[in-house]
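Tokens as discussed.
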């Protein structure tokens, strides 16, 4: 195989990675058209609820107003009905007295004898007639007023029936509007959940495809390296000189495997990692690294060392709180990021530094990456 093979493999890996990054980005994009349409329908439904509620409140206010009028009218009717018997009795007494006077000889005789003269008699008769007439008019007026109030009551009752019907229709419309709004809200929730599930599935598929492509590229790179003359990897020291680095297939003999008493392990490695991280954005996170390493069985030096190689210990992160150049991931805090990264090292890379892990983590330049991480682990 020619010396160009590894470079072609690296270029292939770069292209595949770039294409799959676009696929992952597309998988995470939210198709907003359907949700936008449903949101517009929900806004219309909410407006319908508000309008129905206003109509219901107006109808209820009209019912209350009519009820107050009916109550006042009924009170007036009750008052008049209380006065009517007394006025009727007074009118009847006047009529009976006048009738007796007109029909009985004794009454007329007494009236004639008691009168001083004819004019006095005439005045008395006219007075009695006026009293009878006024009593009758009062009774008639009272009866007429009672009839008018009864008609008013009937009219108010009819208006009340109509107002109550309108209130019922408004209440039904309000119930329907609320039901329509609730149904749309449920539809939006279901649609959002379905889209989130589809987006997650697409993202997982894209990530699997990226891992497979990286693996294939790594295999091509390894095949090309085997065909060429094998030169030992080197590590650039602080003085600028190149120092050969041994690349074993298995972890170093001095690997750290968490075990024993938990508090003692965390206490020791928290202090050592904090000293290593001093002055960096990750300063003070030694306990988080130690706890995560103990929990997942990882070498506690591995994740801090990778952070230095990939981001100058968190100083240059291409994603929020991603100090390890790890996929397209981002987190909300260093604690969350550290736990996630250590868990990933345990599940995907064996939790220890090996050359095989380096080829998987950084296929284009596994040897240099391995030597750099190893050198930083030895500083912790």
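Sequence:
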């Amino acid at each position: 195989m020619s010396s160009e093979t590894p470079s072609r493999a690296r270029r292939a890996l770069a292209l595949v990675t770039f294409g799959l990054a676009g696929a992952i980005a597309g998988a995470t994009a939210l198709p907003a058209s359907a949700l936008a349409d449903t949101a517009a329908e929900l806004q219309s439904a909410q407006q319908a609820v508000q309008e129905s509620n206003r109509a219901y409140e107006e109808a209820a206010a009209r019912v209350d107003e009519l009820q107050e009028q009916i109550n006042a009218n009924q009170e007036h009717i009750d008052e008049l009905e209380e006065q009517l018997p007394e006025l009727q009795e007074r009118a009847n007494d006047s009529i009976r007295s006048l009738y007796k006077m007109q029909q009985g000889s004794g009454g007329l005789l007494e009236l004639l004898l008691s009168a001083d003269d004819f004019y006095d008699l005439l005045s008395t008769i006219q007075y009695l007639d006026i009293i009878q007439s006024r009593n009758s008019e009062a009774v008639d007026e009272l009866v007429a007023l009672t009839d008018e109030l009864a008609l008013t009551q009937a009219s108010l009752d009819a208006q009340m029936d109509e107002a109550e019907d309108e209130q019922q229709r408004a209440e039904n419309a309000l119930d329907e509007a609320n039901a329509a709004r609730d149904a749309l809200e449920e539809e939006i929730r279901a649609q959002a959940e379905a889209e989130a599930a589809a987006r997650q599935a697409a993202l997982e598929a894209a990530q699997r495809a990226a891992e497979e492509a990286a693996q294939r590229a790594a295999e091509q790179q390894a095949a090309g390296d085997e065909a060429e003359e094998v030169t030992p990897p080197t590590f650039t020291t602080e003085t600028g000189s190149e120092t050969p680095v041994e690349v074993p297939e298995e972890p170093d003999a001095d690997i750290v495997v968490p075990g024993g008493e938990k508090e003692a392990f965390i206490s020791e490695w928290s202090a050592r990692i904090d000293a290593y991280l001093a002055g960096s954005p990750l300063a003070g996170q030694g306990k988080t690294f130690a706890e995560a390493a103990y929990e997942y069985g990882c070498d506690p030096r591995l994740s801090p060392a990778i952070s230095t190689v990939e981001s100058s210990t968190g100083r240059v992160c291409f994603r929020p709180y991603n100090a390890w150049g790890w996929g397209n991931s981002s987190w909300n805090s260093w604690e969350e990021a550290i736990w996630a990264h250590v868990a990933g090292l345990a599940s995907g890379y064996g939790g220890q530094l090996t050359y095989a892990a380096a080829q998987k983590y950084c296929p284009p330049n596994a040897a240099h990456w391995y030597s750099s991480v190893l050198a930083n682990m030895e500083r912790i």
